[in-house]
Write a structure and sequence with these properties.
Layout lengths: L2 H12 L3 H10 L13 H8 L1 H20 L11 H19 L12 H11 L1 H18 L2 H19 L5 H17 L1 H9 L17
Length: 211
């Protein structure tokens, strides 16, 4: 299958606005009009509760996972540098689709869950290590944003020094990912420094927000 077609498919998959569809069709609201305004799992957890948040998180993760698996339809040999490069490209395009979804007026989320699904598809052990960093920081601080930033910064450290990834493109991707996550969380960083960032409370059923 042509690489250009795979890239387009990866973007369309990433553009599926999971949070918007769940909030709209099940709860009758647009999640982007509530809370932080992001169409992602974290905001869904905060506004609509555990069930909706979990559904959105898993859906967003699957977008990155499936986009990477589109590389199976390419002509590249499995395990080659070319297939790794393609997987990185397809995954990143899916993340961009999540952030700028064509199906939802280009107003999406921050792409953390989709990014995790992408890494899980390429290197499961790295993804599990990042999940451990995220959960540990969340347990210590209850800040989802700080946990996401910590996991993203740990990504290139793990790739370069622990797993010793040989592919240069993947190393560059890991570093770029850390920079991108920090950039997309600049408002959260400002709130963390000011001491007014919201903490994640214990999961419980939320009342439906007023429209």
């Amino acid at each position: 299958m042509e690489i250009a077609l795979l890239i387009v498919l990866a973007y369309l998959i990433g553009s599926i606005p999971t949070a918007v569809w769940v909030s709209n069709r099940v709860y009758g609201i647009d999640i982007r009009e509530h809370g932080s305004g992001n169409a992602g799992a974290t905001n869904t957890f905060r506004i609509l509760g555990k069930t909706a948040g979990t559904a959105v998180m898993l859906g967003d993760m699957m977008k990155g996972f499936i986009a990477v698996k589109l590389s199976l339809f390419s002509q590249f040999a499995w395990g080659s540098e070319a297939i790794t490069n393609l997987q990185v490209i397809l995954g990143l395009v899916a993340v961009l689709g999540h952030i700028f979804p064509i199906w939802a007026d280009f107003r999406g989320g921050k792409g953390i869950a989709t990014l995790f699904g992408m890494i899980l598809s390429i290197q499961p052990l790295v993804a599990l290590s990042l999940a451990a960093v995220f959960v540990f920081m969340l347990f210590l601080t209850r800040y989802v944003s700080l946990s996401s930033i910590s996991a993203s910064v740990a990504f290139p450290v793990l790739i370069v020094f622990i797993f010793r990834e040989p592919e240069m493109s993947y190393k560059v991707f890991a570093i770029a990912t850390a920079c991108l996550v920090v950039l997309t969380h600049h408002k959260n960083i400002g709130r963390l420094l000011a001491g007014n960032e919201s903490k994640l409370k214990s999961f419980r059923k939320r009342r439906e927000p007023r429209s």
